[in-house]
Amino acid sequence: MKQLFLTSAVILAALPALAQSTPTPASVSLIGEGRHMSVLSEQTFDDTPYIVPAAPKGATQFAFTLKGYVFGIRLIKATYLGYETERDYAVYTDMKTSGLAALLQKLDIWAVTRGSVSEDGSLRPDFHVQQNTDKKNRRVEMNYDNAAKNVDVKIIPRLGSQGVPPASPEERFAAYDTVTALLQMMRNGRQDAEALCEGSVPIFDSKQHYNLRLAPVGTASVKFLGEKDKTIHCYAYYEPVSGFDAEDLPDAEEAGTPVDIYFKYYPEIDMHVPVRFAYRISSFKAIIKMSDMIFVTPDGDVITPENED
Questions:
Q1: Could you count the other beta carbons within 10 Å of the beta carbon of residue 184?
Q2: Which of these, 200, 237, 231, 205, lies nearest to 218 by C-alpha position?
Q3: pTM higher than 0.85 for the full model?
Q4: Domain map of the chain by residue range?
Q5: Do the Cβ atoms of 163 and 244 come closer than 8 Å?
Q6: pLDDT exceeds cutoff 50 at 19
Q7: Do residues 105 and 97 touch, judged by C-beta distance below 8 A?
Q8: Structure confidence by residue, pLDDT tens digits, 100-122
Q9: What is the DSSP track for 24-58?
Q10: Distance separating alpha carbons of residues 31 and 294, to the nearest angstrom
Q11: Are 64 and 266 within 8 A, CB to CB?
């Protein structure tokens, strides 16, 4: 459960869409800075490349780095960068961990998702690629057929189990991938800020299907980027649904202990950005907080903490 929390917290267009006209690229395209973007299609399972265009003009772009601390020791670094327009989005993320005995494995994982924006404002992934760079070098490719409401999942090397019971085709398609889930959370509350910490975010990670059930706590002043600032405080409860082996299920204490998420609203991009995560259970304590941030507004203005008004 501790490993699942740390992975989910940070990580926490379909090919038919490529036929659509692509707007002129913006002068700055943050997603291209992802350290593994250049090798996205080097190990595909067939001859079809995964294409992520540069951010177009008029896109809202974001890039930030989160660093995690366990027992006060920095062991986790994650990046999250991408863009959204009124009709599509693309996101790159990666996470590296140093390892801490049985509490935290040594990992180096990156992932890319491209998708579309539905009329109701919800995100609809079209493909999701994840690459682990450990000894197994496991790769996941999830391709969504939005017309048939189906997602094709390929995993090599194969997993030993899909859980009991496995996630159904309907559950897989209806849920967000792990990369899209965080962007959807950042977009929640645009019309009604009180809705930011309400409802559940369904997630399918290529095997396990679970919900992050959100609950409001209030406002809190927390430190990130070297200063304290006012944030919106939410609880996120991890709720397994399907695709789990018995040993992966949380115990009673873990199931009842939420992740603390603190969102800071940035009106320039109309997003609630998670600037701090905290998880405390028994003697285990993990803190993940924002360490670097940059935005590009639809008008092309580049905003960093140093030049933000």
A1: 18
A2: 231
A3: yes
A4: 2-191+283-303
A5: yes
A6: no
A7: yes
A8: 544 456 778 999 999 999 988 89
A9: PBPS--GGGG-TTGGGTTTT-SSSPPP--PPPBTT
A10: 12
A11: no
